[in-house]
Amino acid sequence: MATPLKSPTREPERRRKVLFIALDQWRAGAERLAGGPSLTPNLDALAAEGVRFSRHYTNAAPCGPARASLLTGLYPHIHRSVRNATPLDARFTNLPLEARKGGWDPVLFGYTDSSVDPRTVAPRDPALRTFEGVLPGFRLEAAHNEASLEPWLTDLAKKGYEVPGRLRDIYRHPGSPKEMDRFSRGAALYRAADSDTAWLTERVLDYWRLRRAEDWFVHLVWYRPHPPFIAPSPYNTLVPAERVAAPVRAATLESERALHPFLDAWLSEQDTADYLKTQVNALRACDEDIAAMRAVYLGLIAEIDVHLGRLVAHLQQTGEWDETLVVFTSDHGEMLGDHWCWGKGGFFEGSNHVPLVIRAPNMPPEARGRVVDAFTEAVDIAPTILEWLGLEPDPGMNGVSLMPWLLGETPDEWRDYAFWEFDFRTLGGGGVEGDLGLTPDQCTLNVIREARWKYVHFTALPPLLFDLEADPGEFVDLSRDPARAPEVARLAGRLASHRMLHAERTLANTKLARHGVRAWTGPRGQVPSDLAEARPPGPRAD
Q1: CA distance 177 to 188
Q2: Helix and strand tally (H, E) in the chain?
Q3: With bands split at pLDDT 50, 70 and 90, how would you rate the model's confidence at 542?
Q4: Known catalytic membership, residue 443
Q5: Torsion angle in degrees (nearest 10) through CA of 222, 223, 226, 228
Q6: How far is residue 488 from each of residues 474, 482, 483, measured CA to CA in Å?
Q7: What is the greatest pairwise CA distance in the chain?
Q8: Alpha carbon of residue 400 to chain centroid
Q9: What structural domains and CATH numbers belong to the chain?
Q10: Alpha helix locations (H) across 276-325?
């Protein structure tokens, strides 16, 4: 790995501020599914001033594991918070804890879905009854997700809204008597000016009003476009359903299930209205309902873009724009019916390919508007932010700073693949785990995704191999084709090398010597693209 570059030069008195935005369930390219005029002009403008990373991938799903990797810079096989509600080991450092060492006070607007290490709290601590805790290091300024609706709903009540007795019922359409009716083309119960996205944006603006002359670090987590697929007017009908591209999927649900035992079991789990908590079973829905659900999802994206524009306009008006690093990404994607799947998880692109745009002050002209098609990952974001703040990323982090790309450089060495992991254990014998007859520790898949080849390795199930040049939709498994056996072996070896290279190294590079403790904290290096060529030469003939 190339020697990390210094962050952009600036005047000594220039402040450093961070706006780190992490959406929930925004898949890369979703905003283009309807064609026509852009749904995200403000995000487009941000990308024109910064760098868009076109091959950016999450390292895990769903939300808890994804954010654990995003905020610790660690792969799931290191931090092991692999499911929602799986505790995150308190021994690991993270982005906000490291930022605090440099004097910043990272504040959170939204949520991180962090599950507390039960060894650090009393047995009856309420934190042990939820997976929607706050990552250590963040100071919670304004909470919002489905477990923390009270602040937003209190504001709605003050404005005269009738707040439902069951708080989650705010996410349903007017006239519905059931909580399980969380998709509608009709408008939400609240106006757009009073939506959850608008409310949280206003809290950030309130926080900034008296801090113009300060350094600050804001982590903003908008809940949308996460389901329920209900949007306030005009966003509920902003995107015509007939303009939305249809899902990319096999001709029948049965033929899709035949691809692999995991997919068969995962689709069986989704084959119920309860999966999305709607009266529509998305797997059995008609084409019109599917198009409408996708259209509302896109409307929620358009709403987010409007509020992104509000934040940018404030920073430009106050003069803070040239002091602020802006990072815009998502925890994971949304399948939206591709391969008949909804939600997040598994190995397909829709769930794991996510947006990333970074804009830093004082970027050279050659960096602005740049589109980087090298593979980047969620674990890279924490080291990037820390380096921009002038801090050394923790040597245990698996990610690599993206700062060279922001300076208009192209690193001499960079990964030519993306890696992610999906853990589908339930710890109760139900779900996919029970359907497949697996133990919890057998319920893991790993993916190594190159430009052409995509290899999926399961702990206790057959692998998958896709040729993305010939089969971009990922419909044909080549893993059992004898002609592709060398490719399977190469990628399996590459996956093993990747995991070995990124093993935890807290003390591995430390040595107790005669004159005291010695440690090496340099870069890990890269897994060679061709393992055969990487072998050392044999004995030299004299």
Answers
A1: 14
A2: 14, 14
A3: very low
A4: no
A5: -140
A6: 16, 10, 10
A7: 90
A8: 16
A9: 17-421 (3.40.720.10)
A10: 287-318
C-alpha–C-alpha distance, residues 188 and 182, integer Å = 10
The β-bridge relationship of strands 51-57 and 370-377 is parallel
Report d(CA 386, CA 417) in Å as an integer.
24
The per-residue DSSP string of 325-377 comes to EEEEEES----TTGGG--SS-SSSHHHHB--EEEE-TT--TTTTTEEEEEEEE
The string of pLDDT tens digits covering residues 389-431 is 999 999 999 999 999 999 999 999 999 999 999 999 998 778 9
pLDDT tens sequence across 131-145? 889 999 999 999 998
Phi, psi of 273 (to 5 degrees): -65, -25
Q: Which two tokens stand for residue 350?
A: 């829709």
Q: How far, rounded to the nearest angstrom, does the alpha carbon of residue 359 sit from its chain's CA centroid?
A: 18
Q: CA torsion 207→196→108→224, rounded to 10°? A: -130
**Cα distance between residue 133 and residue 114, in whole Å:** 5
Residue 536 above 70 pLDDT?
Answer: no
Half-sphere exposure at residue 271, Cβ-oriented, CA atoms within 13 angstroms: 12
Q: How many CB atoms lie within 10 A of CB 131?
A: 20
Of the candidates 463, 525, 513, the one whose C-alpha atom is nearest the C-alpha of residue 491 is 463
- pLDDT, average across residues 381-387: 98
Helix, strand or coil, per DSSP, at residue 5? coil
Contact yes or no for 89/396 (Cβ under 8 A) = no
Angstrom distance (rounded) from CA 329 to CA 28: 9
Q: Which amino acid is at 273?
A: A
The residue count for the chain: 542
